[in-house]
Specification:
By secondary structure, this protein is an alpha/beta fold. The chain has six helices and ten strands; from the N terminus they run αββββααβαβββαβαβ. The protein has a single domain, classed as 3-Layer(aba) Sandwich (Rossmann fold), CATH 3.40.50.
């Protein structure tokens, strides 16, 4: 089963998605460093929204996460959530793909700030449909230090979730996986920086 998912990921999903990321989202400049969201300087910069906010590529990314979950977890989770807005399109793509396969992955979005009106929710989604609060995975597009994913983790833990796994399109390998591991969360990336850096 694992080899079947490995083969599908490695032949049908990752090559075209990597090509589009390289074309539209990746920049490398060792002379003029880029300032990242974490405040760090780096010669490598990824703007995955330039790739993922395209229906074809977003579908590929959703498939990539779906089959990576099957490969690494053996099944898909009951729910997936992350911090807006890096996680938003990925969570929706994953949820819609599962629905096409007669499965349900409930999407949850974490706001950066709690609503100051109405329900005043920090986490948006059908919480009443969740019976097992250990069966949710975190989603992000790019992980550097893990700050955004940990912010989402804090919000889910505050409402009773216990989360063990996080998935992303790209791990920049700058401490994010280690920061998540310290919180008991294992990171599963579709790509890492070494897949792109020259």
């Amino acid at each position: 089963m694992t080899s079947e998912h490995d083969n599908f990921l490695d032949t049908k999903i990752k090559p075209p998605l990597k090509e589009w990321i390289h074309k539209f989202s990746y920049k490398e400049n060792h002379e003029q460093m880029f300032t990242l969201a974490s405040g760090k300087k780096s010669p490598y910069y990824f703007d995955l929204k330039q790739t993922l906010l395209d229906p074809y590529n977003l579908q590929l990314a959703g498939e990539g996460l779906y089959y990576l979950m099957l490969k690494d977890l053996g099944s898909v989770p009951a729910a997936a959530g992350g911090l807006t807005m890096g996680a938003d399109p990925l969570i929706y793509a994953l949820s819609l793909l599962a629905a096409e396969k007669s499965q349900k992955i409930l999407p949850f979005i974490v706001r950066k700030k709690t609503k100051d009106h109405g329900s005043k929710n920090k986490v948006e989604g059908r919480l009443s449909d969740i019976t097992d609060k250990t069966n949710l995975v975190l989603i992000d597009d790019v992980i550097t230090t893990g700050g955004s994913t940990i912010q989402a983790l804090d919000s889910f833990e505050a409402i009773g979730f216990t989360i063990k796994h996080a998935f992303c399109i790209l791990d920049r390998k700058e401490g994010g996986a280690e920061a998540l591991q310290q919180r008991g969360v294992l990171l599963h990336p579709l790509f890492t920086l070494s897949d792109f850096a020259e």
